[in-house]
Amino acid sequence: MELSEHRHILYFSEQPIVLMEELLNIKKISFTHIPTGIPETALAQAQQHYTALKASPFVENSGIGFILFGSACDLALPLQQLCEVKMLLVNPLRRDYFPAMISVIEASEEESMFLQIKAKLENIV
């Protein structure tokens, strides 16, 4: 994906989220979806992508951020131990993991959720 800005989001959910991808495309932020069906696999994939992005000259003066949806939020602490990034948790199932680099959004309506994500993107990457 050829983008004018050097920012990358890894977003974690069970299935790809079309609205999320459209929002990132509009904001000219590249992205990678990490499926979370098998948590160990998701963690390994995240670490591989993060390591490759950090080593790439593409991200030399840019940002990398993580967005975790629903049950994927359970990966926040293990991910934070593997990767030094800011994270956004969207509708987490539990409330006991909010370290400093983690922001939280809770929204019952999809439109409200994506408006909040859009507003917080600049703080993540």
Task: Characterise the protein shown here.
- The structure is a single chain.
- With 125 residues, this protein is of the alpha/beta class.
- The chain has four helices and five strands.
- Strands 2-1-3-4-5 form a five-stranded parallel beta sheet, sandwiched between helices.
- Helix 3 links the parallel strand 3 and strand 4.
- The two termini are 17 Å apart.
Layout: helices, strands, pairs:
Blueprint: E1 7-13, H1 18-26, E2 30-35, H2 39-55, E3 63-69, H3 76-82, E4 86-90, E5 102-105, H4 110-124
Parallel strand pairs: 1-2, 1-3, 3-4, 4-5
Q: Treating each run of at least 4 consecutive H or I residues as one helix, how many helices?
A: 4
Label the overall shape. globular
Secondary structure class reads: alpha/beta
Radius of gyration: 13 Å
Distance between the termini: 17 Å
List SSEs in N-to-C order: EHEHEHEEH
Can you give the helix content as a percent range? 25-40%
How are the strands of the largest sheet arranged? 2-1-3-4-5
Overall number of strands: 5
Q: Low-confidence parts, pLDDT < 50 over ≥5 residues?
A: none
State mean pLDDT (0 to 100 scale): 84
Q: Describe the sheet with the most strands.
A: 5 strands, parallel
Query: What share of the residues does DSSP label as strand, in percent?
Result: 15-25%
